[in-house]
């Protein structure tokens, strides 16, 4: 798969934490609507790659182009704005605000973008229905199961209609049945809305939902398109 | 069988004691062995508890401080109540109070001379009676006299310093006092002199009961200052609670049962509070040394005076660790520590209103019967009333703090999900757990409610106290009553004042009494008298309403209080008796007659700069020779030149040169009690300090909450949440409970204030300035907590929190 027509392209990313290199000349690209699994063992640099691609962390060197714009040259406010409007995120755990109800959690990104509460919650409810968690809309995260909570998180990541969804071990804390259901719903919804998904996982079962796999090892990313 | 049971029971109890001890010790170890964070938490608790303990120890030392101070004051008192007047003898001492003021400083002192050649009593703190021209000074006065600041004061003490008064002769280390020796002859120029044959007051056991308003102030003041401290200690004992709970969960995983985890938590808390006890004792000892140099409202204490009462200190030593453990155990009740983590009760039990309302209502019920009757009666009845008032105030104030969590819960529950994202985040957080915030704010509530109530009491008492003196400081700023024995001395005194630096003008009045010559055969004590005032025309214009005045003229003002209009004996052409006996009664045998000139004009009186209306005969020097007055008094009403700094000090120096025990009085249109100003300031400072203390505990609590939510904060940042959004949510999260707490404390404070005013029978008055100030400080605390929380909040919003490896 070539970078031509790619929505997000990373070239020669280097990132070091203290004396530990996390990324060492890593390259990556993704097309609109594509689901790419980033795989690799623990500590290989998968999450760091995701954080650099999403503009959460600035790489020490290298570039990240999103839709023709250089992410690394953007200010913190610009990157935050991009994350609010064009990107969505799902993490393994600890991502829902415990005080807010599930529907308020899903509506939160919209509200941060200035959408009125009623409208935000209406759109949030629609996504929750789609992800089969409408019944827990008014419960707090502490009152729902892990699988339900993760589906609420997926709904939250998609509610703004992002062009790229970053999912870091989205099923890591779930049993296999719940994990598979979450992945089905996530990839279905993403493909329908032509949202690109960067899926960080170490589970082949989860990676199977992707169109393409990239393996990160010792900070280097290797596209497995040809290998598969 | 029973024989076998007994050792088993004993061994079980031994095991359980050993188990208890081991668990408590393990908790203690956790308090220090958990690395930097663990130490930080323990230190925070220790400092928090320590501050509280230091304040409690200081409060417990107050009775001893005053007792020691009063004992020294009584021991050096020269006044013997109830004793017959001491007649001069070989072993007696002649004395006169010779206190003065220097700038804003009160200086007490005495001039003295032995009456005979025996052994007159020596006051405590000095070795011998100073001879004429010698003086003993307190260390503070010596320092002042030796400094550049005291240069001007040195002229007022024409004595050689022979030593420094020892601690036993001083009430406090910063007291300005002296004992000066003067000659017997110099006492001729001293007005109020007396003789003593011993030092020390004999009024022990005859203390008059305290003014009810003052007693109330003290009672409520103690409650107001100590309750927030207790609340602060309780808050400090919870510092680091969430992290501790997680550690306890880890212990459950390796086999600790619920009881063990509780004992371990108690041990950890016990260690922190015991360390706090040590820190508090250290702070108290340090504060004691520092406090010995502090002068508040002219009162200071020696470090050796500041000794906590032993029973109270024991109670503090036992109660503080016990209450810290109790607070921890109570806090653990609301959570379930399971091996896989800590489960907080998702829906905490709804707070009950009835018992929270019961407390303030009980308080009111205790206070209401005292309305109008506090301080009435005496003996054991007034003691009961004092306890009743204290119990009422405590219940009312505690009731307000007990109501706060309910009010916060009830109010935030109604917020719904409306409003901006920060508002929603804050209110939802409060809805989930408002207890922590309410607990921290409850200290503010007590401090503000109590301070408001006291401010109301002060404002009302002060307003009554601050009455118009009638003095007119625009016409004269100082008044000096000079002891003179004849008119020439009065002339001389006025001339010396006129020549004093800083004196712009002077109204000099020489005055005495004359008696009615027609009652010459009557009892001398019932002979009608009138005042005669001799002064020049410009001065007379300040005393009576006259349009024209020439030297040689005489004016008459009838005294309506004694005689009807025109019925006085001092009439034009009337003869009056100038002669007086040594005992101050008219001399009816050796009369000295003077005839009031026929030209004397009747005029109306005018208030003099001191505010009094003089009556009688007003003569110019050309009409009356002041040398004819047997025992004249001379008053100098002095106008100061505002351009000359320290004019009043120059006048005081001149006064002392005229008479060693003389001081001058400043004129002021209103007499504002310094005491109330100082108490109000102290109250303001105390309340501010309490609010800051509570603010500090709120900062710790907020930071802890933020640290617990580090990962969540990073996730929020990941999907683009602005810093301002989270900053505002912290502000709202602090502001909502504080604002509710302030509202409640204003309501409670006003209620308590009204009750206190009713109890001492004062008119109702709200101190709006005090109310606004306290509210302002409360607002300041909100801002401070938010501002201090922002840098760590922003640090925690860094994406590093997302890293799990």
TrEMBL record, chain A:
Annotated keywords: ATP-binding, Nucleotide-binding, Transport
InterPro entries: AAA+_ATPase (IPR003593), ABC_transporter-like_ATP-bd (IPR003439), ABC_transpr_LolD-like (IPR015854), MacB-like_ATP-bd (IPR017911), P-loop_NTPase (IPR027417)
GO MF: ATP binding
SUPFAM superfamilies per UniProt: P-loop containing nucleoside triphosphate hydrolases (SSF52540)
Pfam families referenced in this protein's UniProt entry, alphabetically: ABC_tran
Domain ABC transporter: 8-227
Keyword ATP-binding: yes
Gene3D superfamilies found in the cross-reference section: P-loop containing nucleotide triphosphate hydrolases (3.40.50.300)
Source domain of life: Bacteria
Designated name of the protein: ABC transporter ATP-binding protein
UniProtKB/TrEMBL annotation, chain B:
Membrane-spanning residues: 43-62, 213-237, 269-286, 306-332, 353-374, 386-408, 437-458, 682-703, 730-756, 768-790
Name used for this protein in its record: ABC transporter permease
Subcellular location field: Cell membrane
Pfam families: FtsX
Presence of the UniProt keyword Cell membrane in the record: yes
Protein's organism: Streptomyces endocoffeicus
Domain ABC3 transporter permease C-terminal as annotated: residue spans: 223-332, 686-798
Membrane topology listed for this record: Multi-pass membrane protein
Highest taxon listed in the record's lineage: Bacteria
Keyword line: Cell membrane, Membrane, Transmembrane, Transmembrane helix
């Amino acid at each position: 798969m070539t970078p031509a027509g790619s929505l997000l392209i990373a070239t020669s990313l280097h990132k070091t934490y203290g004396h530990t290199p996390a990324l060492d000349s890593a390259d990556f690209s993704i097309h609109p609507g594509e689901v790419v699994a980033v795989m690799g063992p623990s500590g290989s640099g998968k999450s760091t790659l995701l954080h650099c691609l999403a503009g959460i962390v600035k790489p020490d060197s290298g570039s990240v182009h999103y839709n023709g714009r250089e992410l690394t040259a953007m200010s913190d406010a610009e990157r935050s704005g991009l994350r609010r409007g064009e990107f969505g995120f799902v993490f393994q755990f600890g991502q829902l605000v415990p005080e807010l109800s599930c529907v308020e959690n899903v509506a939160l990104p919209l509200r941060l973008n200035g959408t009125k509460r009623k409208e935000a919650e209406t759109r949030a409810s629609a996504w929750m229905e789609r992800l089969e968690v409408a019944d827990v809309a008014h419960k707090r995260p502490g009152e729902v199961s892990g699988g339900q909570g993760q589906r609420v998180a997926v709904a939250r990541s998609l509610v703004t209609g992002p062009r790229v969804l970053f999912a870091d071990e989205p099923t890591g804390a779930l049993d296999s049945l719940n994990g598979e259901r979450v992945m089905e719903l996530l990839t279905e919804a993403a493909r329908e809305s032509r949202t690109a998904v960067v899926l960080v996982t170490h589970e082949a079962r989860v990676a199977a939902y992707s169109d393409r796999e990239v393996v990160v090892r010792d900070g280097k990313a290797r596209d497995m398109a040809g290998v598969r | 069988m029973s024989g076998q049971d007994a050792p088993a029971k004993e061994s079980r109890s031994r095991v359980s004691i050993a188990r208890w001890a081991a668990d408590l010790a393990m908790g203690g170890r956790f308090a220090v062995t958990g690395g930097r964070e663990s130490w930080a938490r323990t230190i925070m608790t220790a400092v928090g508890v320590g501050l509280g303990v230091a304040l409690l120890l200081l409060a417990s030392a107050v009775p001893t401080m005053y007792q020691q101070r009063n004992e020294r004051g009584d021991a050096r008192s020269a006044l013997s109540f109830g004793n017959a007047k001491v007649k001069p003898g070989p072993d007696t001492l002649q004395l006169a109070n010779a206190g003065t003021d220097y700038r804003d400083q009160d200086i007490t002192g005495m001039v003295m001379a032995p009456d005979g050649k025996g052994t007159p009593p020596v006051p405590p703190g000095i070795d011998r009676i100073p001879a004429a021209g010698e003086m003993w000074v307190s260390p503070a006065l010596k320092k002042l006299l030796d400094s550049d600041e005291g240069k001007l004061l040195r002229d007022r003490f024409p004595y050689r310093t022979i030593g420094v008064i020892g601690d036993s002769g001083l009430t406090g280390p910063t007291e300005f006092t002296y004992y000066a020796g003067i000659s017997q002859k110099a006492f001729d120029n001293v007005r109020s002199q007396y003789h003593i044959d011993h030092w020390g007051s004999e009024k022990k056991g005859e203390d008059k009961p305290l003014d009810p308003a003052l007693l109330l102030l003290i009672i409520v003041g103690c409650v107001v200052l100590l309750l927030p401290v207790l609340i602060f200690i309780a808050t400090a004992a919870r510092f680091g609670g969430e992290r501790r709970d997680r550690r306890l969960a880890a212990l459950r995983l390796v086999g600790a049962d619920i009881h063990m985890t509780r004992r371990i938590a108690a041990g950890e808390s016990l260690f922190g509070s015991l360390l706090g006890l040590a820190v508090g004792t250290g702070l108290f000892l340090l504060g004691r040394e520092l406090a010995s140099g502090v002068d508040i409202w002219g009162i200071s204490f020696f470090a050796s005076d500041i000794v906590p009462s032993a029973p109270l200190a024991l109670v503090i030593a036992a109660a503080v660790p016990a209450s810290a453990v109790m607070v921890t155990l109570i806090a653990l009740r609301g959570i379930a520590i399971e091996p896989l983590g800590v489960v907080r009760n998702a829906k905490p039990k709804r707070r009950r209103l009835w018992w929270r309302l019961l407390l303030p209502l009980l308080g009111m019920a205790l206070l209401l019967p005292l309305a109008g009757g506090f301080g009435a009666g005496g003996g054991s009845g007034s003691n009961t009333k004092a306890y009743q008032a204290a119990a009422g105030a405590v219940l009312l104030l505690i009731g307000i703090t007990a109501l706060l969590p309910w009010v916060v819960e009830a109010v935030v529950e109604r917020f719904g999900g409306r409003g901006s994202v920060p508002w929603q985040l804050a209110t939802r957080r409060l809805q989930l757990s408002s207890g922590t915030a309410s607990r921290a704010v409850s200290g503010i509530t007590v401090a503000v409610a109590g301070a408001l109530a006291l401010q109301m009491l002060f404002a009302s008492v002060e307003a009554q106290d601050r009455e118009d003196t009638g003095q007119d400081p625009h016409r004269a700023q100082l008044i000096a009553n000079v002891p003179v024995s004849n008119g020439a001395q009065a002339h001389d005194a006025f001339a010396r004042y006129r020549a004093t630096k800083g004196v712009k003008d002077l109204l000099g009045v020489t005055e005495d009494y004359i008696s009615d010559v027609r009652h010459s055969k009557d009892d001398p004590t019932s002979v009608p008298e009138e005042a005669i005032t001799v002064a020049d025309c410009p001065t007379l214009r300040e005393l009576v309403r006259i349009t024209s005045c020439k030297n040689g003229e005489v004016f008459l003002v009838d005294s309506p209080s004694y005689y009807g209009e025109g019925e006085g004996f001092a009439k034009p052409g009337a003869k009056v008796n100038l002669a007086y006996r040594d005992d101050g009664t008219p001399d009816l045998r050796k009369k000295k007659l003077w005839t009031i000139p026929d030209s004397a004009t009747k005029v109306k009186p005018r208030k003099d700069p001191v505010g009094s209306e003089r009556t009688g005969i007003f003569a110019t020097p050309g009409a009356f020779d002041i040398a004819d007055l047997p025992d004249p008094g001379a008053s100098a009403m002095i106008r100061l030149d505002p351009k000359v700094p320290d004019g009043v000090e120059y006048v005081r120096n001149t006064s002392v040169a005229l008479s060693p025990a003389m001081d001058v009085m400043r004129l002021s249109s209103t007499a504002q009690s310094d005491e109330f100003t100082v108490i109000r300031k102290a109250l303001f400072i105390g309340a501010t300090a309490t609010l800051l203390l509570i603010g500090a505990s709120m900062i710790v609590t907020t930071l802890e909450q933020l640290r617990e939510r580090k990962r969540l904060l990073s996730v929020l940042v990941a999907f683009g949440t602005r810093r301002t959004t989270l900053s505002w949510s912290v502000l709202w999260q602090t502001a909502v409970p504080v604002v509710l707490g302030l509202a409640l404390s204003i309501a409670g404070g006003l209620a308590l204030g009204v009750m206190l005013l009713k109890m001492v029978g004062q008119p109702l008055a709200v101190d709006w300035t005090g109310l606004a100030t306290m509210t302002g400080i409360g607002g300041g605390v909100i801002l401070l907590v938010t501002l201090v929380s922002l840098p760590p909040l922003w640090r925690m919003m860094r994406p590093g929190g997302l890293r799990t490896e």
